[in-house]
Amino acid sequence: MEKEGQRAHHREGIMNEKMRELQKTTGYLNELPAYAWPGGYPLVYTGGQNEFLCAACAQRALDNPDGWDEWLPDDYFIHYEGPPIFCSECNAEIESAYGDPYA
């Protein structure tokens, strides 16, 4: 239990204000959400050199930032429309909410 508390405290120190606000407003204090609420729209995180990250990889970077410097999430956006985006770390496909209008 103490180890989780230490990780949460460490996460607070490396997260910027926008990321902290996301966790507070969504109620996801121990993990980053994959979807916005309300609406259930897919969230994409950006980190480092504008790399796209899925919620799981963004969370792993926050939980264990050693060696993840280039992956630390510093922003996010709702992926409303367009082709799928692939996570730069694990290659997970993040579908847009309304699909690709040109497909």
What value does the average pLDDT take?
A: 81
Total separate domains? 1
Biggest sheet character: 3 strands, antiparallel
Q: Count every beta strand, where a strand is a DSSP E run of 2 or more residues.
A: 5
Give the overall shape, derived from the CA principal axes.
globular
Roughly what fraction of the amino acids lie in strands? 15-25%
Question: Portion of residues in helices?
Answer: 25-40%
- Secondary-structure element series: HHEEHEEE
- How far from one another are the termini? 48 Å
Number of helices: 3
What strand order characterises the main sheet?
2-1-3
Secondary-structure class: alpha+beta
Low-pLDDT windows of residues = 1-11
Radius of gyration: 14 Å
Q: What do these coordinates show?
A:
By secondary structure, the protein is of the alpha+beta class. The chain has one domain (2-94). The chain has helices at residues 2-14, 17-26, 55-63; strands spanning 43-47, 51-53, 73-78, 85-86, 93-94. The strands form two sheets. Strands 2-1-3 form a three-stranded antiparallel sheet, covered by helices on one side. The longest helix has 13 residues, at 2-14.
Name its key features:
single chain; 103 residues; alpha+beta; three-stranded antiparallel beta sheet; two-stranded antiparallel ribbon; 3 helices; 17% strand; disordered N terminus
List the helices and strands and how they pair.
Blueprint: H1 2-14, H2 17-26, E1 43-47, E2 51-53, H3 55-63, E3 73-78, E4 85-86, E5 93-94
Antiparallel strand pairs: 1-2, 1-3, 4-5
Care to give the gist of this entry?
The chain has 103 residues and is α+β, with helices and mostly antiparallel strands. The chain is built from three helices and five strands, in the order ααββαβββ. It has a three-stranded antiparallel beta sheet, with helices on one face.
